[in-house]
UniProtKB/TrEMBL annotation:
A single GO BP: CAAX-box protein maturation
Residues passing through the membrane, by range: 12-31, 37-54, 74-97, 117-136, 200-222
Protein name: CAAX prenyl protease-related protein
Organism: Janthinobacterium svalbardensis
Keyword Membrane set for record: yes
Pfam families assigned: Rce1-like
GO molecular function, one term: endopeptidase activity
Residue span(s) of domain CAAX prenyl protease 2/Lysostaphin resistance protein A-like: 116-208
């Protein structure tokens, strides 16, 4: 699973999770959430560096991939991203949630910490979708079907593996039920349009618009 072909898609994701673990340990050790805000910048910076380091391995992202998607795929990706956002904001019943999100508050004093705020939005909308889709859809979804995952054609992926991946993706988030539906939507886009960019665009739309909504409402727990 962690061979030289899988590592470029696995390592950025687990590095991201490792930083979440570091934050949890530091909070357990007595650090306040506010003291750890810039840990997010470090986390995104390290993940971005890994993505850049392994960029030649991501053949499914090679240009002109996005340009060749076609307007139908782009429209469906944007619509799916918006639908997932609506679900994310409305599926918060107690049984649909695991634990509580610490959230992310970019305010400092009487205003926003703009460098931190911009890093958060850019990280969530641009870096995280690429990192997560490379792991969940490009790697794990295809690997479940065949260890030779790079040879798996997206349109031939079996439905049960889409569901398994979506469930695991959902439980990565505290809003696990909405996360499962999001995973199904992104997986469907990948299979339907046979390009990882469709899932990345949808994921980016969801995260980007969620950031705008959080700023407008001050509901920091959604971050």
């Amino acid at each position: 699973m962690f061979d030289r072909l899988a590592l470029p898609r696995v390592l950025p994701f687990f590095t991201y999770l490792f930083f979440i673990l570091i934050a949890d340990v530091l909070i357990w050790a007595g650090y306040a959430q506010e003291q750890l805000r810039y840990l997010y910048v470090v986390k995104i910076g390290v993940v971005l560096a890994l993505l850049w380091l392994y960029r030649r391995h991501y053949t499914e992202l090679a240009w002109p991939g996005p340009a060749l998607m076609g307007w139908r795929a782009i429209v469906w990706a944007v619509l799916a991203g918006i639908v997932v956002l609506v679900l994310w904001l409305n599926l918060g019943a107690s049984w649909m949630v695991i634990g509580a999100s610490a959230g992310f508050d970019p305010r400092s004093g009487n205003g926003y910490d703009w460098p931190l705020l911009l890093a958060r939005i850019a990280g969530a909308a641009l870096v995280v979708p690429v990192m997560e889709e490379l792991f969940w859809r490009s790697f794990l979804l295809r690997w479940l079907q065949s260890p030779n995952f790079l040879a798996v054609e997206p349109s031939l992926l079996r439905f049960r593996y889409i569901v398994i991946t979506a469930i695991l993706f959902g439980f990565e988030h505290n809003l696990w039920f909405a996360g499962i539906l999001a995973g199904l939507a992104y997986g469907w886009l990948y299979v339907r349009f046979r390009t990882l960019w469709s899932a990345i665009i949808a994921h980016g739309v969801t995260n980007g618009l969620l950031g705008v909504w959080v700023l407008m409402t001050g509901q920091w727990a959604y971050w």
